[in-house]
Write a structure and sequence with these properties.
By secondary structure, this protein is mainly β. Helix content is 0%, strand content 49%. It has no helices and 11 strands. The strands form 2 sheets. Strands 2, 4, 5, 6, 9, 10 and 11 form a 7-stranded mixed sheet that branches. It starts with a strand and ends with a strand.
């Protein structure tokens, strides 16, 4: 599945952004677990949030719990990441990804397809 992320930009600390990831190429995200990941300069790519294909089960890294919300709209073939109360340490390139894995469905290694990233910069 081909993925395209959008919605990144420059925002002040405390602000909000909503990232979108749309699938194309004739595939539906309905069969995929979907995730958002981020990679800051000099750091490894890590999971931010993930949502299971059952549309109910979600996962968040501790540092974003209560601030970020992942959601999906299978009819629109899109997954979202609503980011509130942004902090400078949230600055990174954000990637969306899709997984067909049963286990490790919310990990970097468990992802099958990756989109190009979108840069989020949070100024202090």
């Amino acid at each position: 599945v081909q993925l395209q992320a959008s919605g990144g930009g420059l925002v002040q600390a405390g602000g909000s952004l909503r990232l979108s990831c749309t699938a194309s190429g004739g595939r539906t995200i309905r069969s995929y677990n979907m995730g958002w990941f981020r990679q800051a300069p000099g750091k490894e790519r890590d999971v931010v949030a993930a949502i299971h294909k059952n549309t109910i089960t979600t996962y968040y890294v501790d540092s974003v719990k209560g601030r970020f919300t992942i959601s999906r709209d299978n009819a629109k073939n899109t997954v979202y990441l609503q980011m509130n109360s942004l902090k400078p340490e949230d600055t990174a390139v954000y990637y969306c990804a899709a997984s067909t894995q049963v286990s490790h469905w919310n990990t970097v290694d468990g992802m099958n397809s990756w989109g190009k990233g979108t840069l989020v910069t949070v100024s202090s």
